[in-house]
Specification:
Number of helices: 3
Strand content: under 5%
Number of domains: 1
Helix content: over 70%
Structural class: mainly alpha
Length: 78
């Protein structure tokens, strides 16, 4: 189980970094669905890892990040 949590955390980190890198290189826009879904998946992975490891400030930050992104996706869907 510990290995799965660690891999989930690393995947989450890579996805958030990929989203930021793509945004910085202007390959995606801040309002694009791909940018937002990368952040959703990445923050979810980081939440799992942070919670498992008792890093609650990091978990809280990623819960907020995930919530903001999901709200943006819901608004865009309307």
């Amino acid at each position: 189980m510990k290995l799965a949590v660690e891999l989930t955390g690393w995947a989450g980190a890579l996805l958030v970094l990929a989203a930021y890198g793509l945004l910085t290189m202007e390959r995606v826009t801040p309002t694009s669905a791909s940018y937002r879904w990368l952040n959703v998946a990445g923050s979810a992975g980081l939440i799992v890892n942070a919670t498992w490891n008792g890093a609650f400030p990091a978990a809280f930050l990623n819960i907020v990040w995930l919530t903001v992104t999901l709200v943006a996706l819901a608004r865009a869907a309307r």
